[in-house]
Design goal:
alpha+beta, 2 domains, two-stranded antiparallel ribbon
Amino acid sequence: MISSIIILVIAFLTLIALMIVHEFGHFIIAKKFGVKVEEFGIGYPPRIFGKKIGETIYSVNWIPLGAFVKIYGEEGGVDDYRSFSNLKIWQRVLIVIGGVAAFWVAAAIIFSIVFAIGSDLPVGDSEAQGLTNPQVKVISISQNSPAGLAGIKATDTITDVIAGGLDTKINKISDFQKITNDNKGKEITIRVKRQNQSLNFNLTPRINPPVGQGSVGVALERMATLIKKTSWYMAPVQGVIYTWQTTIDALKGLYSVFADLASQKGLPQGAEFAGPLGITVFLANAASYGIGFFLYFIGIISVFIAIFNLFPIPALDGGKLVFLLIEKIKGKPVSVKVEQGITVSCFLILIILSLFITIKFDIPRFFDFLKSSI
């Protein structure tokens, strides 16, 4: 339980780090154009402490849900040569895009590291061609299950099952499930690899297991080395290419989601709603697959958040770009009062939607994660 909480904290801090990188993108471009940055904050007010360096206050705040940059004149209506609103439109566009671009830069760096170390990724049983080192890993153990009582642990790799005198190599989940189901009530031997050791565990699959646990009581994931270790000088190239491919795949996936929702088909299979808490749980689960997959998943999240931030929704960077486009077309900015009213309204809607997703989907995920670690 303690280790799971630590993993959750690390996953949450990782999300915060992504938000800091995002805000740093806005910050560095604003500084480049000579705009006054009043505050760079980690978390949201009320403030715990802050230190003024130059003209900018760097603060740490009580609500740990992201980060923010307070740019002078960003709300508009400030006629000052150091203000955001006094810049040319293309300069303001670059400041807004700077935050989004930071996500893609972060993803490229993260994927570069993944290519430098190599990574096993989850694959389905149906995928059989061209796989390198396919293996079945134990992700979690049910409490008081045959596997748990025998001594099998999460992160073990199942290599063989010996039943009825036959030794069967395991590289598919379905193979393991068939053998254990065929031998309910009979003692079998499961051989696992644990930190370069080969260990045998004798157990008897249950005839009537609890709902959702299976006869042995293990949650499994099939993994294969889909990202092979690359030379240090080629890893950054592969990281950039993979970021581009991931962005294209993400856009295709989002199109499918919206197309299915528009046609009232519901969410496509495998698609799930998730808020900050849900993403934290997904990250914590990813950590159980190893550092390579954990970093890979962070890169994926970074790309998706970048795309989401470009949605033309006020309160997001994409919404700010829409207001700048309107200003370009009209030849004058949108009224400060109107822009702030629309932005605040959309922000409240996003908060309400986030709370709904958190209560409906994320909190159950969180407790399921904790239960699986007991």
